[in-house]
Amino acid sequence: MRIIIVGGGAIGLLLAARLARAGERIMLLTRTDEQAEALSSEGLLLIENAGAERRIQISSSSLIRYTAAGEHRAFAPDWVLLAVKQPSLNEALLAELKLLAAGGVPLLALQNGIGHMELLQRSLPQSPVYAAVTTEGALRTDARTVMHTGTGQLTFGSWTESEKNDAKPQKMLLQALNGAGIQAKLSKEMKDQVFLKLLINAVINPLTAIFQVKNGELPQDPHRLKLMRALHGESEQILRADGLQSNADHWERLLGVCAATAANESSMLRDIRAGRMTEINWINGGIAERAKQLGLPSKMNEAVRALVEALHVS
Fold first, then answer.
1. How many distinct structural domains can be found in the chain?
2. 3 state DSSP class of 260
3. For the residues of 230-247, what is the DSSP string, one character each?
4. CA–CA separation, 227 vs 233, rounded Å?
5. Considering the entire predicted model, what is its pTM?
6. E-assigned strands of the chain?
7. Are 223 and 274 contained in the same domain?
């Protein structure tokens, strides 16, 4: 398959490395020329869970240079995988995505939080847009190096059950992902899948960023645990009102994620420490916005949103 991956962050690099290693034709599009040149000239370095290092030759270009040269038309992608964070989904990027997905090329959206699916569907009316969530662990250590820090699963499918999307491209992508050693599956319940991940991110991400602790440390302090419970309870109530169907014990699942990723720093904590914009407006801010629409209180989500935004300023 011919696959364009937009985004040279941890997940974008991890997907590019594994798919290219499996023989898929990959074009990795980055924000900067410098990263693209490093990847093209030196290769993508993948550090596996067990510590083994693999150098993978990859085709790469900056997104703007690639579309300006019209190279996307010659490449004729079968899929576009969007692996940038929510703050990057601005008008300029949406215009570039229209070029990449021209002619109805399907797009897979790998963003955390909510709000992006509706935005992408409005902006790309000719292309089927699929939601995806991944629990793979990855850490980008420099422009061309990614560490695979935890094996997980990539789940994708149509955003709503009413969408009538062609099954063939989905099955082709599923085959490519599984062939690359990526545990992937199709789901007809993507809204639930997105909400379940959001429910975890809405607690772990802001609180680890505020308290400057790793995931496993978060529930170890009784005061932090009390805040976790309050934030989780409010978020679950809002998401249930918005259509969450799962009847699992979501609190125990949250504690299980903290334990399983105990040594990890959340992406929001890493963003704060690196001085980068976080996804707080699309995680807790997204939940608070849904609560407003539903007429429900969201004091905890609004509070952590304000605290994380204050950390942006400092």
1. 2
2. helix
3. HHHHHHHHHHHHTT----
4. 10
5. 0.93
6. 2-6, 25-30, 44-47, 53-56, 59-62, 79-82, 107-109, 129-134, 137-142, 145-150, 154-158, 184-186
7. yes
Q: Which of 188, 217, 252 is the last residue before a domain boundary?
A: 188
Query: Do 60 and 197 reside in the same domain of the chain?
Result: no
Which range of residues forms the domain containing residue 26? 2-188
C-alpha to C-alpha distance for 245 and 299, rounded to whole angstroms: 23
Exposure string for 21-30, b = 16+ CB within 10 A, e = fewer: beebebbbbb
The neighbour count for residue 299, using CB atoms within 10 Å, is 12
The CATH number covering residue 288 comes to 1.10.1040.10
Residues 6+ apart with CB under 8 A from 175: none
Q: pLDDT (tens digit, 9 = 90+) per residue, 50-102? A: 789 999 999 999 999 999 998 888 899 999 999 999 999 999 999 999 999 99
Structure tokens at 70: 């019209």
Are 225 and 276 spatial neighbours (Cβ–Cβ below 8 Å)?
A: no
pLDDT tens per residue across span 265-277: 999 999 999 999 9
Question: Residues 232, 254: one domain?
Answer: yes
Tell the residue number behind the tokens 């009413």, with chain if given: 162
Helix boundaries (H) for 116-249: 116-123, 167-179, 190-211, 222-241
Same structural domain, 98 and 201:
no
CB 147 within 8 A of CB 124: no
Distance CA 274, CA 92 (A): 24
Q: Residue 130 in contact with residue 157, Cβ under 8 Å?
A: yes
Whole-angstrom distance, CA of residue 202 vs CA of residue 157 = 22
Query: Final residue of a domain: which of 122, 157, 188?
Result: 188
Residues 169 and 213 in one domain: no
If one counts every other C-beta atom within 10 angstroms of the C-beta of residue 65, the result is 14
